[in-house]
From TrEMBL:
Keywords: ATP-binding, Isoprene biosynthesis, Kinase, Nucleotide-binding, Transferase. It comes from the Bacteria. Gene3D superfamilies: 3.30.230.10, GHMP kinase, C-terminal domain. One of its GO terms (biological process) is terpenoid biosynthetic process. InterPro entries: GHMP_kinase_C_dom, GHMP_kinase_C_sf, GHMP_kinase_N_dom, IspE, Ribosomal_Su5_D2-typ_SF, Ribsml_uS5_D2-typ_fold_subgr. One of its GO terms (molecular function) is ATP binding. Signal peptide: none annotated. Pathway: Isoprenoid biosynthesis; isopentenyl diphosphate biosynthesis via DXP pathway; isopentenyl diphosphate from 1-deoxy-D-xylulose 5-phosphate: step 3/6. Residues 218-292 form the GHMP kinase C-terminal domain. Belongs to the GHMP kinase family. IspE subfamily. Residues 74-152 form the GHMP kinase N-terminal domain. This is 4-diphosphocytidyl-2-C-methyl-D-erythritol kinase. PANTHER family: 4-DIPHOSPHOCYTIDYL-2-C-METHYL-D-ERYTHRITOL KINASE, CHLOROPLASTIC.
Length: 312
């Protein structure tokens, strides 16, 4: 592959159609049965050559751009530096993020930008890094980053980074209700552990069995059956997200009242996800949610879609 002068990568957000959370491990992570589903709502990351010696520079546009850190902690910047270090080259690049994924919303927006930056810099610098190596670098950046490279629907084991693609038929229609303000992922996992301790079940790996993927959920995905999928959606972090943000219950109820087949918190929240029967159903649930005053905005979208891909 030859180096390029400008590379744009489109990358999807995710919803977890099953988020089974096992016990707290000694390393501070939880073992998961995490069924990721990539949706068309996504970010774009454009890489252009940087000033030699200046390293990674960043820009971000979009309504929530002010919430995105533009320092060294940005996952896109970390991804560019990690890829450059792996190849022993200077990470001189400018990354421009067009942000549509809610920030700190439980839709893996930062992870998506990290994956997009790996793909964009790989093409810009003409490196041709094999996918298995990109997946390893992605796992170093965060548990959700490898899935953003793959897209589609996949089961994540371990802390979510060990991926197995899952068969899926057709297209499912979703609505995402964006909340005011985000939720911290570590805080939601901590609240999940606190609720387990308070219920007397314990929170450690010795007390909580490692979850398995639901056979009914996998069958619903393979069959392309939204009604069956609606009956199988689960999120073990939902109680914790609702405990930290009780008002989310009003949003979930408003979507169900508007005709959604099912409602759940997306990942660690606070974005709420609604499965609809079809595209028209999703549009009408989104309109009703917007009018309900229980969320800041609601977007109809669909999936599954591919992972981080060069568009131009
Ligand atoms: C909950 C999920 C569900 O897909 O996504 P979000 O809702 O945040 O998008 C993920 O597990 C989030 O993955 P990600 O956001 O990449 O987390 P990481 O950076 O790897 O870890 C951040 C922190 O989350 C907690 N963490 C994360 C993953 C995991 N399996 N167990 C954990 O306990 C740990 O406290 C960890 O220090
Ligand atoms: N490119 C990025 N986009 C958004 N947030 C980022 C990014 N890089 C780092 N972050 C940090 O990651 C935190 C979690 O953001 P995000 O990945 O959007 O949410 P979640 O982990 O809930 O899916 C943000 O609060 C922000 O401080």
């Amino acid at each position: 592959m030859t180096a390029k002068i400008r590379v744009t990568v489109r990358v999807p957000a995710k919803v977890n159609v099953q988020l089974g959370v096992g016990g707290l491990r000694a390393d501070g992570f939880h073992d998961l049965a995490n069924v990721f589903f990539a949706v068309a709502l996504g970010d774009e990351v454009t890489a252009t050559p940087g000033t030699p010696g200046r390293g990674v520079t960043l820009g971000c546009t979009g309504p929530d751009a002010h919430q995105v850190p533009l320092d060294d902690s940005n996952l896109a910047a970390r991804a560019a530096r990690l890829l450059a270090a792996h190849h022993g080259i200077e990470p001189d690049v400018h990354l421009e993020i067009a942000k549509a994924i809610p920030v700190a919303g439980g839709m893996a927006g930062g992870s998506a930008d990290g994956a997009a930056a790996l793909v964009a810099c790989d093409a810009l610098w003409g490196l041709d890094t094999p996918l298995p190596v990109l997946l390893e670098l992605a796992a170093e950046l965060g548990s959700d980053v490898p899935f953003a490279l793959l897209g589609g629907v996949a089961l994540g084991r371990g802390r979510g980074e060990l991926l197995e693609e899952l068969p899926v038929t057709g297209t499912f229609h979703w609505v995402f209700a964006v909340a005011d303000g985000g939720l911290s992922t570590p805080a939601v996992f901590r609240e999940c552990d606190r609720l387990r301790e308070a219920a007397g079940t314990g929170a450690g790996v010795d007390r909580v069995p490692t979850p398995d993927p639901s056979a009914a959920l996998l069958a619903a995905l393979a069959a392309g059956d939204p009604v069956a999928l609606a009956e199988s959606l689960t999120n073990d972090l939902q109680a914790a997200a609702l405990s930290l943000r009780p008002a989310l219950a009003d949003c979930l109820e408003a979507g169900l009242a508007a005709g959604a087949l099912a409602a759940l918190v997306s990942g660690s929240g606070p974005t709420c996800a609604f499965l609809a029967k079809d595209a028209a159903g999703a549009e009408s649930v989104a309109e009703a949610l917007t009018a309900s005053g229980t969320c800041r905005a609601a977007h109809a979208t669909h999936g599954p879609v591919p992972g981080a891909r060069v568009t131009g």
